[in-house]
Specification:
This protein is an alpha/beta fold. Helix content is 40%, strand content 10%. A 7-stranded mixed sheet has the order 9-8-7-10-13-12-14. A two-stranded antiparallel sheet has the order 1-2. Helix 8 links the parallel strand 7 and strand 8.
């Protein structure tokens, strides 16, 4: 293969159609040959009748005559004596005819041997190029491959829904140069010429075997509008312009096509807009960035010994939290402890002292960046995108950037997660295809235009420390004004992923949203049959992420439904001092775990210290209750 692959792939085993026209039978070929031969004989005979008299006379002419029959047969410079004066014209005629027949026969046999010959494609379209000469600089042929096979062969990293039966089943390979066409001559001919049988189908390896480079374009049609795509031969561009007949109310066919933001949805809403210079968020961003730059060196110096202590295989699990979300942090720690996971690889970046004490009381290592995170709010966010939510997004940027700058790999996760298996074992598996990627994300579940093209969930992802990822998260810090303006850390990060993938070759992997390894809110709300299997312990899931929720109260409610809430209500929203009744300012893992209980759907309490026994009890309870998740 000419193209560099992210991982070694074997040739696709399933049969693919080799196109190049139908096979013409041997009898048909003979008939065509006989017709041609007859035409040649008739042509030669009529020519003889017209020139026989002149030919006889030319034999008597000087041997130097350039157009004499003798010169034509024996070549110039042969004396008249060398030519038998008694040679009759009939012999000359036969030699001329045999010479012409031999030439035609050789020509015809060469045509029969050529697999790309239009003779084999015996139809009216055989010699019609698929693209005119005016497009030959960028279009010289095309083939089709199965979308699912193409993605399996190359693994582009983008999440893809299965193509079969969707109207997006096949992908098109466009050949810019004739030398990039496949080696198979029949397939190459059918790709270049319209044989009346459509665009030829092949497998990904054959289709790309002569492509020294390949531009990959993902095309969708959000809203199923009357969309077109223009491909223009010009100075190379790796961005797509979006033109729409739209205003702030949506699509309007009476309007002219105009250049718009790629973030405008079919309803006219703009998801991407530049922060104005006098915007409060821009000035706030500058102030926060100034504090970071003034203190980054001292912060990194303080973090070096801490990261050295907690890292495993040069990687660390990172969480950040304020006191308003601390109950979810307690729940994660208690659930992980119940399942026997080692929490020594975890580093928490608390944004207030109350959370710092609580995390350390759970046995977790912390680093409190008071200068950068101290000013952040300590209360819980009441809804997605509110002021508290946006402020905490800044903490999510810093806590990942710091370890990356010190060359540590990072697994970042939100606190509303429970572990079923240690996810680090997946990301450290060198035999996995995922090991080739720089950043690996859980799918958010939403395919809205604001998250295109990746829909990466910024609440659970793994980053390998290298110069590409270090600059990615440095750039995210520099774009914090977009986070504040757009109300989303995730939205800004996805756009930077797309740009850095194109600009620097950052290898981005986002798993399909229907993967069972890293389920979340999309499965909880949309895939009820999967959730029942998850509760019964019959999936291969590493984690569950309680995303797609408006606030902490909903997260607690839904985790209770799953039987994954481990914290006594008396501990929610309290400090370490309040939990222990004022006896101490810190607490170990054991006291808090002993206070933990599990609540199943409908607030039925099941108190069980053994996880396996609890799952069995919960499964029986679900059977008695019917399907608490509804019908799919």
């Amino acid at each position: 293969m000419s193209l560099p692959l992210r991982s070694t792939r074997t040739r696709m085993s399933q049969p693919f159609e080799r196109r190049g026209g139908g096979n013409v039978s041997i009898d048909s070929k003979i008939i065509i040959f006989v017709v041609k031969l007859t035409f040649v004989v008739l042509l030669c005979g009529s020519s003889y009748l017209a020139g026989s008299i002149w030919g006889r006379h030319s034999l008597e002419m000087s041997s130097t005559a350039p157009m004499s029959v003798g010169s034509l047969i024996h070549g110039p410079g042969v004396s008249g004596g060398d030519v038998d004066s008694g040679m009759d014209c009939e012999k000359v005629r036969r030699e001329l005819i045999n010479s012409e027949v031999k030439k035609e026969l050789e020509k015809h046999m060469n045509e029969l041997k050529s697999p790309a010959s239009p003779v084999e494609n015996n139809d009216s379209h055989a010699a019609t190029p698929r693209f005119p000469q005016q497009m030959q600089r960028f279009a010289n042929g095309m083939t089709r491959v199965k979308k699912d096979d193409l993605n399996e062969y190359f693994d582009f990293g983008n999440p893809m829904d299965p193509g079969k039966g969707t109207g997006e089943e096949d992908a098109i390979i466009l050949y810019h140069n004739k030398k990039s066409l496949p080696n198979d001559k029949k397939l190459a001919y059918s790709a270049e010429y319209d044989d009346g049988k459509g665009i030829p189908m092949t497998d990904p390896e054959t289709a790309t075997e002569n492509c020294d480079s390949m531009n990959v374009v993902f095309i969708g049609n959000p809203g199923n509008t009357r969309q077109c795509t223009a491909i223009i031969g010009n100075f190379e561009s790796y961005h797509i312009q979006r033109w729409m007949r739209a205003n702030d109310k949506g699509i309007d066919p009476s309007l002219p096509l105009e250049h718009k933001s790629r973030g405008i949805a079919s309803n006219g809403r703009s998801n991407f807009y530049a922060p104005p210079f006098n915007n409060q968020y821009t000035k706030k961003h500058w102030s926060m960035l100034r504090t970071f730059l003034e203190n980054v060196d001292s912060v990194l110096d303080e973090l070096k010994p801490i990261l050295k202590k907690v890292s495993r295989n040069n990687s660390v699990v990172i969480l950040t939290c304020n006191h308003g979300q601390s109950a979810l942090l307690v729940n994660f720690a208690c659930s992980a402890t119940r399942r026997g996971f080692d929490l020594g690889n975890i580093l928490v970046f608390p944004s207030d002292l109350e959370t710092k004490e609580l995390a350390e009381g759970l046995g977790l290592t912390t680093y409190y960046d008071e200068k950068n995170m101290g000013p952040l709010p300590s209360g819980e966010a009441r809804r997605y995108g509110d002021k508290t939510f946006k402020a905490m997004m800044y903490a999510k940027v810093l806590c990942v950037l710091y370890p990356l700058l010190l060359d540590y790999d990072v697994l970042f996760q939100d606190v509303d997660i429970v572990w079923y298996k240690n996810p680090m074992t997946f990301f450290h598996n060198e035999t996995s295809d995922a090991f080739k990627f720089d950043v690996i994300f859980q799918h958010d579940g939403s395919n809205s235009v604001r998250y295109a093209p990746y829909s990466a969930n910024s609440g659970f992802y793994y980053v390998r420390a290298n110069k590409k990822t270090q600059y990615l998260f440095t750039s995210l810090l520099y774009h914090s004004d977009l986070i504040l303006t757009w109300d989303s850390h995730q939205q800004a990060l996805v756009q930077l992923l797309a740009e850095h993938s194109s600009l620097f070759g950052l290898n981005v992997k986002v798993y399909n949203r229907d993967t069972s390894m890293f389920p979340g809110g999309w499965q909880f709300h949309r895939k009820h049959s999967f959730m029942k299997e998850l509760v019964k312990g019959k999936t291969d899931s590493y984690i569950f992420h309680m995303s797609w929720t408006e606030n902490k109260d909903n997260k607690l409610l839904f985790l209770r439904q799953l039987g994954e809430w481990y914290v006594n209500d008396a501990c929610v929203g309290t400090t370490v001092h309040e939990i222990l009744g004022g006896e101490s300012s810190s607490v170990g893992v054991a006291p808090l775990v002993e206070l933990a209980v599990r609540l199943s759907p409908c607030s039925v309490v099941i108190i069980e210290t053994n996880p396996q026994s609890f799952r069995a009890k919960l499964a029986r309870l679900l059977i008695q209750m019917g399907n608490p998740f509804g019908k799919e």
